[in-house]
Amino acid sequence: MTGLLDGRIAIVTGAGRGIGRAHALELARHGAKVVVNDFGVSLAGEGTDESPAAQVVGEIVAAGGEAVANGADVADFAAAEALIGQAVETYGGLDILVNNAGFVRDRMLVNTSEEEWDAVIRVHLKGHFATLRHAGAYWRAESKAGRQRDARVINTSSGAGLQGSIGQGTYSAAKAGIAGLTLVAAAEMARYGVTVNAIAPVAKTRMTEGAFDTSAMALPEDNSPVVAWLASEDARDVTGRVVEIDGSRITVENGWAHGPSADAGARWEAAEVGPALRKLLAEAPEPESVYGA
Ligand SMILES: NC(=O)c1ccc[n+]([C@@H]2O[C@H](COP(=O)([O-])OP(=O)(O)OC[C@H]3O[C@@H](n4cnc5c(N)ncnc54)[C@H](O)[C@@H]3O)[C@@H](O)[C@H]2O)c1
Protein backbone atom coordinates (compact mmCIF):
# COMPACT_ATOMS: atom_id res chain seq x y z
CA MET A 1 0.00 0.00 0.00
CA THR A 2 1.26 3.46 -0.88
CA GLY A 3 -1.04 5.59 1.26
CA LEU A 4 -2.24 7.69 -1.71
CA LEU A 5 -5.84 6.77 -0.83
CA ASP A 6 -5.47 5.74 2.82
CA GLY A 7 -8.79 5.88 4.66
CA ARG A 8 -10.72 6.87 1.52
CA ILE A 9 -14.00 5.09 0.74
CA ALA A 10 -14.73 4.19 -2.89
CA ILE A 11 -17.41 2.67 -5.10
CA VAL A 12 -16.40 1.23 -8.48
CA THR A 13 -19.27 0.19 -10.76
CA GLY A 14 -18.91 -2.73 -13.16
CA ALA A 15 -15.86 -3.79 -11.13
CA GLY A 16 -16.29 -7.54 -11.49
CA ARG A 17 -14.40 -7.69 -14.78
CA GLY A 18 -12.18 -5.82 -17.19
CA ILE A 19 -11.26 -2.20 -16.56
CA GLY A 20 -13.50 -1.78 -13.48
CA ARG A 21 -11.88 -4.77 -11.79
CA ALA A 22 -8.44 -3.23 -12.41
CA HIS A 23 -9.62 0.11 -10.93
CA ALA A 24 -10.99 -1.62 -7.79
CA LEU A 25 -7.73 -3.54 -7.24
CA GLU A 26 -5.65 -0.37 -7.80
CA LEU A 27 -7.74 1.80 -5.43
CA ALA A 28 -7.52 -0.91 -2.76
CA ARG A 29 -3.75 -1.24 -3.30
CA HIS A 30 -3.46 2.48 -2.50
CA GLY A 31 -5.41 2.04 0.74
CA ALA A 32 -9.05 2.74 -0.22
CA LYS A 33 -11.93 0.66 1.12
CA VAL A 34 -13.91 -0.42 -1.94
CA VAL A 35 -17.51 -1.31 -2.67
CA VAL A 36 -17.16 -3.58 -5.71
CA ASN A 37 -20.34 -3.25 -7.77
CA ASP A 38 -21.19 -5.58 -10.64
CA PHE A 39 -24.52 -6.79 -12.00
CA GLY A 40 -22.69 -9.68 -13.66
CA VAL A 41 -24.21 -9.37 -17.12
CA SER A 42 -23.06 -10.77 -20.47
CA LEU A 43 -21.21 -8.58 -22.96
CA ALA A 44 -24.61 -7.66 -24.48
CA GLY A 45 -26.08 -6.91 -21.04
CA GLU A 46 -28.05 -10.11 -20.49
CA GLY A 47 -28.43 -12.30 -17.37
CA THR A 48 -27.07 -11.54 -13.91
CA ASP A 49 -24.33 -13.15 -11.83
CA GLU A 50 -23.08 -12.23 -8.36
CA SER A 51 -19.79 -14.11 -8.68
CA PRO A 52 -17.63 -11.54 -10.59
CA ALA A 53 -18.04 -8.91 -7.84
CA ALA A 54 -17.51 -11.53 -5.10
CA GLN A 55 -14.31 -12.76 -6.79
CA VAL A 56 -12.82 -9.26 -6.91
CA VAL A 57 -13.72 -8.71 -3.24
CA GLY A 58 -11.89 -11.99 -2.53
CA GLU A 59 -8.80 -10.77 -4.42
CA ILE A 60 -8.73 -7.46 -2.52
CA VAL A 61 -9.18 -9.12 0.87
CA ALA A 62 -6.52 -11.74 0.06
CA ALA A 63 -4.08 -8.90 -0.68
CA GLY A 64 -4.79 -7.36 2.74
CA GLY A 65 -7.36 -4.75 1.63
CA GLU A 66 -10.97 -4.05 2.55
CA ALA A 67 -13.89 -4.53 0.15
CA VAL A 68 -17.54 -5.56 -0.02
CA ALA A 69 -19.62 -6.69 -2.98
CA ASN A 70 -22.71 -5.06 -4.43
CA GLY A 71 -24.83 -6.66 -7.18
CA ALA A 72 -26.95 -3.67 -8.22
CA ASP A 73 -27.96 -2.72 -11.73
CA VAL A 74 -26.49 0.81 -11.77
CA ALA A 75 -29.25 2.07 -14.06
CA ASP A 76 -31.94 1.08 -11.54
CA PHE A 77 -32.49 4.41 -9.75
CA ALA A 78 -33.47 2.89 -6.38
CA ALA A 79 -30.70 0.27 -6.51
CA ALA A 80 -28.16 3.02 -7.27
CA GLU A 81 -29.35 4.88 -4.15
CA ALA A 82 -28.94 1.70 -2.11
CA LEU A 83 -25.40 1.29 -3.52
CA ILE A 84 -24.41 4.73 -2.20
CA GLY A 85 -26.14 3.81 1.08
CA GLN A 86 -24.13 0.59 1.33
CA ALA A 87 -20.82 2.50 1.24
CA VAL A 88 -22.04 4.94 3.89
CA GLU A 89 -23.44 2.21 6.15
CA THR A 90 -20.50 -0.19 5.76
CA TYR A 91 -17.58 2.23 5.91
CA GLY A 92 -19.08 5.44 7.34
CA GLY A 93 -19.06 7.62 4.22
CA LEU A 94 -18.17 7.96 0.56
CA ASP A 95 -15.25 9.83 -1.02
CA ILE A 96 -14.80 8.30 -4.49
CA LEU A 97 -17.32 7.20 -7.12
CA VAL A 98 -15.92 5.53 -10.24
CA ASN A 99 -18.67 5.09 -12.85
CA ASN A 100 -17.49 2.37 -15.23
CA ALA A 101 -20.27 -0.21 -15.75
CA GLY A 102 -21.65 -0.73 -19.21
CA PHE A 103 -22.15 -3.02 -22.17
CA VAL A 104 -22.34 -2.77 -25.96
CA ARG A 105 -24.72 -3.88 -28.71
CA ASP A 106 -22.79 -2.62 -31.72
CA ARG A 107 -24.77 -2.10 -34.92
CA MET A 108 -24.85 0.21 -37.89
CA LEU A 109 -27.46 2.89 -37.23
CA VAL A 110 -29.83 1.70 -39.93
CA ASN A 111 -29.92 -1.78 -38.33
CA THR A 112 -30.24 -0.59 -34.71
CA SER A 113 -33.47 -1.64 -33.01
CA GLU A 114 -35.35 0.54 -30.55
CA GLU A 115 -34.64 -2.01 -27.83
CA GLU A 116 -30.87 -1.95 -28.53
CA TRP A 117 -30.86 1.86 -28.49
CA ASP A 118 -32.77 2.00 -25.18
CA ALA A 119 -30.63 -0.66 -23.47
CA VAL A 120 -27.25 0.89 -24.36
CA ILE A 121 -28.34 4.47 -23.59
CA ARG A 122 -29.84 3.25 -20.31
CA VAL A 123 -26.84 1.37 -18.95
CA HIS A 124 -24.24 4.03 -19.75
CA LEU A 125 -26.10 7.33 -19.47
CA LYS A 126 -28.71 6.55 -16.82
CA GLY A 127 -26.18 4.26 -15.12
CA HIS A 128 -23.86 7.26 -14.70
CA PHE A 129 -26.68 9.67 -13.78
CA ALA A 130 -28.28 7.45 -11.12
CA THR A 131 -25.15 6.90 -9.02
CA LEU A 132 -23.91 10.48 -9.57
CA ARG A 133 -27.31 11.89 -8.54
CA HIS A 134 -27.48 9.92 -5.27
CA ALA A 135 -23.80 10.40 -4.41
CA GLY A 136 -24.17 14.13 -5.13
CA ALA A 137 -27.17 14.38 -2.80
CA TYR A 138 -25.14 12.63 -0.07
CA TRP A 139 -22.20 15.03 -0.55
CA ARG A 140 -24.50 18.06 -0.53
CA ALA A 141 -26.06 16.87 2.76
CA GLU A 142 -22.61 16.34 4.28
CA SER A 143 -21.52 19.80 3.15
CA LYS A 144 -24.64 21.45 4.58
CA ALA A 145 -24.08 19.63 7.88
CA GLY A 146 -20.57 21.15 8.08
CA ARG A 147 -18.80 17.89 7.21
CA GLN A 148 -17.75 18.65 3.60
CA ARG A 149 -15.88 15.71 2.07
CA ASP A 150 -13.02 15.99 -0.41
CA ALA A 151 -14.94 13.91 -2.92
CA ARG A 152 -14.16 12.59 -6.40
CA VAL A 153 -16.17 11.26 -9.32
CA ILE A 154 -14.42 9.59 -12.24
CA ASN A 155 -16.77 8.82 -15.14
CA THR A 156 -16.04 6.62 -18.15
CA SER A 157 -16.42 8.09 -21.61
CA SER A 158 -14.76 6.65 -24.71
CA GLY A 159 -12.97 7.65 -27.89
CA ALA A 160 -16.20 6.44 -29.53
CA GLY A 161 -18.07 9.22 -27.76
CA LEU A 162 -15.43 11.91 -28.29
CA GLN A 163 -14.36 11.22 -31.89
CA GLY A 164 -17.20 8.90 -33.02
CA SER A 165 -17.00 5.26 -34.12
CA ILE A 166 -18.58 3.52 -37.10
CA GLY A 167 -21.00 0.78 -36.03
CA GLN A 168 -21.29 2.23 -32.52
CA GLY A 169 -23.79 5.07 -32.98
CA THR A 170 -25.80 4.32 -29.84
CA TYR A 171 -22.73 3.71 -27.70
CA SER A 172 -21.06 6.86 -29.10
CA ALA A 173 -24.14 8.95 -28.27
CA ALA A 174 -24.16 7.59 -24.69
CA LYS A 175 -20.43 8.19 -24.20
CA ALA A 176 -20.64 11.73 -25.66
CA GLY A 177 -23.51 12.30 -23.23
CA ILE A 178 -21.29 11.18 -20.36
CA ALA A 179 -18.67 13.77 -21.38
CA GLY A 180 -21.35 16.50 -21.30
CA LEU A 181 -22.72 15.24 -17.99
CA THR A 182 -19.20 15.40 -16.55
CA LEU A 183 -18.91 19.12 -17.39
CA VAL A 184 -22.24 20.01 -15.77
CA ALA A 185 -21.68 17.85 -12.70
CA ALA A 186 -18.23 19.43 -12.19
CA ALA A 187 -19.75 22.91 -12.35
CA GLU A 188 -22.71 22.08 -10.09
CA MET A 189 -20.95 20.01 -7.43
CA ALA A 190 -17.78 22.08 -6.87
CA ARG A 191 -19.57 23.90 -4.04
CA TYR A 192 -19.92 20.58 -2.16
CA GLY A 193 -16.20 19.75 -2.44
CA VAL A 194 -16.68 17.32 -5.33
CA THR A 195 -14.51 17.11 -8.47
CA VAL A 196 -15.93 15.32 -11.51
CA ASN A 197 -13.69 14.12 -14.35
CA ALA A 198 -13.91 11.42 -17.00
CA ILE A 199 -11.50 9.02 -18.60
CA ALA A 200 -11.58 7.60 -22.12
CA PRO A 201 -9.84 4.26 -21.53
CA VAL A 202 -8.48 1.67 -23.93
CA ALA A 203 -8.06 -1.98 -23.00
CA LYS A 204 -8.13 -5.50 -24.24
CA THR A 205 -11.28 -6.87 -22.55
CA ARG A 206 -14.20 -8.99 -23.71
CA MET A 207 -15.74 -5.71 -24.96
CA THR A 208 -12.95 -5.03 -27.45
CA GLU A 209 -11.84 -8.61 -28.17
CA GLY A 210 -14.82 -9.33 -30.42
CA ALA A 211 -14.73 -5.99 -32.26
CA PHE A 212 -11.10 -5.00 -32.85
CA ASP A 213 -7.60 -6.46 -33.30
CA THR A 214 -6.55 -6.45 -29.65
CA SER A 215 -3.15 -8.12 -30.06
CA ALA A 216 -1.23 -4.91 -29.25
CA MET A 217 -3.93 -3.27 -27.12
CA ALA A 218 -3.30 -1.88 -23.64
CA LEU A 219 -4.28 -3.88 -20.56
CA PRO A 220 -7.16 -2.95 -18.21
CA GLU A 221 -4.70 -2.14 -15.40
CA ASP A 222 -2.88 0.42 -17.60
CA ASN A 223 -5.88 2.74 -17.07
CA SER A 224 -6.15 2.50 -13.30
CA PRO A 225 -3.19 4.62 -12.03
CA VAL A 226 -4.84 7.69 -13.64
CA VAL A 227 -8.08 6.88 -11.82
CA ALA A 228 -6.19 6.40 -8.54
CA TRP A 229 -4.54 9.82 -8.88
CA LEU A 230 -7.76 11.59 -9.94
CA ALA A 231 -9.36 9.98 -6.85
CA SER A 232 -6.66 11.30 -4.53
CA GLU A 233 -6.68 14.45 -2.42
CA ASP A 234 -3.80 15.75 -4.55
CA ALA A 235 -6.19 16.10 -7.54
CA ARG A 236 -8.57 18.52 -5.79
CA ASP A 237 -7.91 21.31 -8.34
CA VAL A 238 -8.63 19.15 -11.41
CA THR A 239 -12.29 19.03 -12.47
CA GLY A 240 -14.46 18.95 -15.59
CA ARG A 241 -11.72 17.27 -17.64
CA VAL A 242 -11.65 14.26 -19.93
CA VAL A 243 -8.39 12.30 -20.07
CA GLU A 244 -7.73 9.65 -22.68
CA ILE A 245 -5.50 6.77 -21.60
CA ASP A 246 -3.88 4.45 -24.12
CA GLY A 247 -1.30 2.25 -22.46
CA SER A 248 1.54 4.48 -21.30
CA ARG A 249 0.18 7.63 -23.05
CA ILE A 250 -2.23 10.05 -21.36
CA THR A 251 -3.91 12.83 -23.39
CA VAL A 252 -6.12 15.75 -22.33
CA GLU A 253 -9.15 15.83 -24.62
CA ASN A 254 -9.91 19.36 -25.78
CA GLY A 255 -13.63 18.87 -26.30
CA TRP A 256 -16.05 21.33 -27.82
CA ALA A 257 -14.86 24.93 -27.85
CA HIS A 258 -16.07 28.03 -29.70
CA GLY A 259 -14.16 28.31 -32.97
CA PRO A 260 -14.21 30.98 -35.69
CA SER A 261 -17.46 32.98 -35.70
CA ALA A 262 -19.15 35.76 -37.65
CA ASP A 263 -22.01 38.09 -36.68
CA ALA A 264 -24.28 39.42 -39.44
CA GLY A 265 -25.66 42.08 -37.09
CA ALA A 266 -29.22 41.03 -37.96
CA ARG A 267 -30.95 37.72 -38.88
CA TRP A 268 -28.98 35.93 -41.61
CA GLU A 269 -30.26 35.74 -45.18
CA ALA A 270 -30.08 32.04 -46.13
CA ALA A 271 -28.18 32.85 -49.35
CA GLU A 272 -25.50 34.67 -47.34
CA VAL A 273 -24.99 31.81 -44.89
CA GLY A 274 -23.13 29.63 -47.41
CA PRO A 275 -20.19 31.97 -48.16
CA ALA A 276 -19.91 33.08 -44.53
CA LEU A 277 -20.04 29.56 -43.10
CA ARG A 278 -17.60 28.21 -45.71
CA LYS A 279 -15.11 30.94 -44.74
CA LEU A 280 -15.40 30.02 -41.07
CA LEU A 281 -15.06 26.30 -41.84
CA ALA A 282 -11.88 27.04 -43.80
CA GLU A 283 -10.47 28.87 -40.77
CA ALA A 284 -11.50 26.14 -38.28
CA PRO A 285 -9.33 23.09 -37.54
CA GLU A 286 -10.33 19.98 -39.53
CA PRO A 287 -12.35 17.61 -37.34
CA GLU A 288 -10.60 14.37 -36.43
CA SER A 289 -11.88 11.41 -38.40
CA VAL A 290 -14.46 9.07 -36.95
CA TYR A 291 -12.96 5.71 -35.89
CA GLY A 292 -13.42 3.19 -38.67
CA ALA A 293 -14.34 5.82 -41.28
N1 LIG B 1 -12.29 -1.81 -23.34
C1 LIG B 1 -12.07 -0.65 -23.95
O1 LIG B 1 -11.14 -0.47 -24.77
C2 LIG B 1 -12.95 0.53 -23.64
C3 LIG B 1 -12.79 1.71 -24.38
C4 LIG B 1 -13.54 2.82 -24.07
C5 LIG B 1 -14.46 2.76 -23.04
N2 LIG B 1 -14.64 1.59 -22.34
C6 LIG B 1 -15.62 1.58 -21.26
O2 LIG B 1 -14.99 1.10 -20.08
C7 LIG B 1 -15.98 0.48 -19.25
C8 LIG B 1 -15.55 -0.93 -18.88
O3 LIG B 1 -15.48 -1.71 -20.06
P1 LIG B 1 -14.71 -3.12 -20.15
O4 LIG B 1 -14.00 -3.12 -21.44
O5 LIG B 1 -13.96 -3.37 -18.89
O6 LIG B 1 -15.97 -4.13 -20.28
P2 LIG B 1 -16.30 -5.51 -19.53
O7 LIG B 1 -17.47 -6.09 -20.23
O8 LIG B 1 -15.08 -6.33 -19.37
O9 LIG B 1 -16.74 -5.04 -18.05
C9 LIG B 1 -17.91 -4.30 -17.83
C10 LIG B 1 -18.52 -4.77 -16.51
O10 LIG B 1 -19.70 -3.96 -16.25
C11 LIG B 1 -20.70 -4.81 -15.71
N3 LIG B 1 -22.02 -4.22 -15.95
C12 LIG B 1 -22.67 -4.11 -17.14
N4 LIG B 1 -23.89 -3.57 -16.95
C13 LIG B 1 -24.01 -3.31 -15.61
C14 LIG B 1 -25.02 -2.73 -14.82
N5 LIG B 1 -26.20 -2.34 -15.35
N6 LIG B 1 -24.80 -2.57 -13.49
C15 LIG B 1 -23.63 -2.97 -12.94
N7 LIG B 1 -22.65 -3.57 -13.65
C16 LIG B 1 -22.84 -3.73 -14.97
C17 LIG B 1 -20.51 -6.13 -16.44
O11 LIG B 1 -21.12 -7.21 -15.71
C18 LIG B 1 -18.99 -6.22 -16.54
O12 LIG B 1 -18.43 -6.95 -15.46
C19 LIG B 1 -17.30 0.55 -20.03
O13 LIG B 1 -18.02 1.70 -19.64
C20 LIG B 1 -16.81 0.69 -21.46
O14 LIG B 1 -17.80 1.26 -22.29
C21 LIG B 1 -13.92 0.48 -22.62
TrEMBL record:
Protein's recorded name: Short-chain dehydrogenase
Family: Belongs to the short-chain dehydrogenases/reductases (SDR) family.
PROSITE patterns the UniProt entry points to: ADH_SHORT
Keyword terms of this UniProt record: Oxidoreductase
Stretches assigned to coiled coil: none
Domain of life: Bacteria
Pfam family of the protein (one): adh_short
Keyword Oxidoreductase: yes
Matches recorded under InterPro entries: KR_dom (IPR057326), NAD(P)-bd_dom_sf (IPR036291), Peroxisomal_Beta-Oxidation (IPR051687), Sc_DH/Rdtase_CS (IPR020904), SDR_fam (IPR002347)
